Protein: SAM-dependent methyltransferase
Amino acid sequence: MDDELNALRRSRMRWNTPLSEPHAQLLLDRMALGDGHLVDLGCGWGELLLRALGRALGLRGTGVDTDRTGLARGRAAAASRGLAVEFTEADAATWDVPADRAFCVGSAHVFGSAKAALAALARVVRPTGRLLYGDGFWAASPTAAAREIFGPDLLTLPDLLDVVDGAGWRVLHLSTADQLEWDDFESTSRAAWAEWLVAHPADPRAPEVRRWLDRRWREYVRDYRGVLGFTYLVLGR
Ligand SMILES: C[S@@+](CC[C@H](N)C(=O)[O-])C[C@H]1O[C@@H](n2cnc3c(N)ncnc32)[C@H](O)[C@@H]1O
Structure:
């Protein structure tokens, strides 16, 4: 798809994860933000990072991602809110700058697995620090189609917590995305293209956009709605 449609695609999303505003506020409370340095690895456009910096004014922030569209959106949002955040184009998997707080939300795949992510994050977050780790898990027995979409490595929540424990982290907070957060996430991830399609039914790109939307809705409703879960863990050591 071209740059115009790519830039449009996620424009209706607040952040790229199933998370309501009150749930986000709860997670930021549990991160006990203060002074120091917060790094968001796989930040996308860094909306949660910006919210964190907006409430903890002594905090310095760095967002790390490889997606230039997301980074540009993050920089524009930071500038419009007067927040001094650095958005860096880099591979999060090799990031090694120590931080007092870290976010890794929906980005564990960047490290290869939850186990590898939690081990790498233990090297980045200072021993007195905290990590907000958001990851998918099987909330119900997956269908073959769901396994096909999300791969063989996704864990159940108990197995994920064993991996957390094995990497030396202690759980300070655990919550999971509810159905409304999921439905809103899936809807907003499609909304901009769905609206574009209504406005441009005869555009040469319309058939491809329609096929993409139809497939994504089919997958969500038939294959993984209520099957894929998402957990938010605030971790310390
Ligand atoms: C599901 S999104 C989560 C974004 C963000 N954490 C949020 O909650 O809105 C996963 C992000 O990982 C980023 N990503 C993929 N590979 C990466 C890499 N090697 N280094 C850094 N970021 C990467 C993608 O560009 C994407 O923004």
User: Anything to note?
Assistant: The longest helix spans residues 179-199.
